[in-house]
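Repro:
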Amino acid sequence: PMQLLYFNEINQDLIDKLLAINAAANIHHRLATKETIAKLHANGIKVNAWTVNELSIADRLIGDEIDFITTDILE
């Protein structure tokens, strides 16, 4: 599956683009809030967060039902 690397505001334009190209959202972990993840999931879009190098952030994202996590090293 393809993922679109994105680091700006999550809005309807992005959702439309992701749906049009059948891609997952690949967003910075600061944008990956519980609400954002739920909004993307409600539109059938999987979500990856980058770059997560802290266990506490990974734990939060997992609790918020993120689909994928990109990391350099998880400490």
